[in-house]
UniProtKB/TrEMBL annotation, chain A:
Gene3D superfamilies: ABC transporter involved in vitamin B12 uptake, BtuC (1.10.3470.10). The chain crosses the membrane at residues 99-118, 125-144, 164-189, 210-232, 252-278, 290-315, 321-339. This is Iron complex transport system permease protein. One of its GO terms (biological process) is siderophore-iron import into cell. Belongs to the binding-protein-dependent transport system permease family. FecCD subfamily. GO terms for cellular component: plasma membrane. It is found in: Cell membrane. It is a multi-pass membrane protein.
Automatic annotation (TrEMBL), chain B:
GO terms for molecular function: transmembrane transporter activity. The lineage of its organism: Bacteria, Bacillati, Actinomycetota, Actinomycetes, Micrococcales. The chain crosses the membrane at residues 31-52, 118-136, 142-162, 235-256, 276-306, 318-338, 344-364. It is found in: Cell membrane. The keyword Transmembrane helix applies. Keywords: Cell membrane, Membrane, Transmembrane, Transmembrane helix, Transport. GO terms for cellular component: plasma membrane. Belongs to the binding-protein-dependent transport system permease family. FecCD subfamily. InterPro entries: ABC_BtuC-like (IPR037294), ABC_transptr_permease_BtuC (IPR000522). PANTHER family: FERRIC ENTEROBACTIN TRANSPORT SYSTEM PERMEASE PROTEIN, FERRIC ENTEROBACTIN TRANSPORT SYSTEM PERMEASE PROTEIN FEPG. SUPFAM superfamilies: ABC transporter involved in vitamin B12 uptake, BtuC. This is Iron complex transport system permease protein.
Amino acid sequence: MPAGRQTGRSAAFVLVPLVVLMLGCLAALALGARAVDPATTLQVLLGGTDGSAAEGIDAAAVLSRIPRTVTAVLVGAALGVTGAALQGATRNPLGDPSLLGLSAGAMLAVAAGLALGVPATLVPIIGLAVAGTLVAAVVVYAVAGTASRMATGTGGAPGPLSLVLAGAAITAGCTALTTALLVLFPAVLDRFRFWTVGSVARTSLEDAALLAPLILVGILVVVLCAPGLDALSLGDELAHGLGARPVRTRVLLLGSAVVLTAAAVALAGPVGFVGLMVPHALRRFHPLSTRVLVFGCALWGAVLLVAADLFGRLVVAPQEIHIGVTTVVLGVPVLLVLLRRKAVSL
Amino acid sequence: MSAVLETPRRAGGTTALETVRDLRARSTRRLSFVLVGLAVLLVLGMGVRVLLGGYTVAIPDFFAILAGERIEGAAGARFIVLQEKLPRAVAAALAGAALGASGALFRRTLRNPLASPDILGVTQGAAAAAVLVLAAGGVRGAGMAVAALIGGLAVTAAVLLVSMPGRSSRGSGGPAGGGLAGALGGQRFIVAGIAVAALGQAVVASAMLALSQHDLQAAAVWTAGSLNAVTWERIGYLAVTAAVLLPVGAALHAALSPSDLGSDLAHGLGSRPGRTGLGALGVGALLAAAATAATGPLAFVALLSTPIARGLTGGRPSLPAAALTGAVIVVLADFLAAEALGGVRLPTGVLTGAAGAPLMLWLLMRTRMGVR
């Protein structure tokens, strides 16, 4: 393939979702209980309203939708990239923070911290979330590694099935403990009843703004490690022979996956299957490099969650379907198709 | 099996046949000993649940209440025993037995210690179906129980269908080949089940958020599993289902014993592991769904009662032992959840979930099922 066409394809891989994302955000800001026409929406965003009463209501409607849309973009980007990083670093096609129990660990840590009296501001919450994700990741990886060693009699990376089973056990246990905390400390944790499903309904712009740099750094680290991901997919020995440093790459990737998961959970609770769906869907279009794939995961992940939020608000208005539910309903069939196509060898 | 290997060789004088006969008798003696022990434990546990705790009842008073007499100076005792403590104990025992039996059936059919109705999404599917008919049509009572049964069966069928190797991949797909046998022999159904379980949980959670602004108690029942909302009516449905299905399940469980040797050998011995296994999974799914309709999804009970029962019987699979183990687990868990924290009542499923997760991780680490 000529170099020019390669660049063109890679540019399309990033530009198409960028345009879709912008259109999606515009739609998400314009549509809802009070639909605002796109021109007015843009005017409100650019600060050019003329102050009439109807426009005031329109402006209020648009502005009220900004926090949840921004949060959906951030969480979607974080989770899409987390999926790509986890799948590459563990060489496990079922890499997804919720399937592997990481989101549930973060959720439990945050709930436990708040119940013990940690102030409910963002910095302690993100600290708790990182700690919970890290503990869950270590436990899942250690248990799955032991299970794989028992099965194969050799060392090596844990297989997908044992990782997912360990993740399921961690998820069930952490969810049970979180429910116990919700029952025991109803006053402190009442607002988390929504959050435990995975939702952007009650987010603030300040939280999103505070976490945005963290998420961007996490994504950047994964982007920088992307060439190492290609080498990792060949196995550690070959990767070493190619001049990559598999251990360092893996630590960096898993570290950013932990931080990105924790940030996503701190903002929106456990939103499942985004990290599974987006990278697998994009690989079908054969990205030319892993770096392009990671960019694509960030953008399409954001598109997915903005669309899920918009869909959830429109379909059952005035009620809403939380994004955590929509992504699971979308993601489970995708996982089942992956299993049938033997894209996942167990 | 392991008993044979561990028993030291006898001194001369006994023939091999006598040794085998002796070992079999010993294993049967151990099984009956375990069954009696578990039954005694269950009765004791139910006794503790009914008589002790936040409101203590004397044994003579309990029988007097059962006989319909009034207790002098304690007018509320009759209500507390008959409408609160006794139904919880009975429902816990029945649901635990149904879940334990269901776990034993799944375990034996799928020949995998991690294959159980709660891992495969059967209980979550039953709960989702029950919640959906409640939320969509306001259906309660018998209709809800029937919906749960249909939901449990549908999830089992869906997970098996998805796990059947496709025509293109036959031959390369696992040791057992294509079709149903392929689905039963492979491991894909576990991942498919975990995914379906997540789907069921999401459905329940969203329905609950929409429904339960004012009814957290009901939400706890369907999200975590709880005995707080148990009524004699629900117990009635569960008791009828269990009375019909437990004997059938026990018969199927026994008929599946050749399949412990692997499906090829079992076929050679003249059994039809495919058909019997399908029946066993159906009965197991119905038992788990019936329990879920009464108490909500009680995490890990079905998964853990079978390995615990096998540990007690010395490795011999037994459906009654698993059922009794499940019943003991749920009765004790319900007592602890209701009484351990003083004034606060935790949903019973929270306790089984929190205690069961480390046990499942341990099970996962020591299993030699070729889980890669």
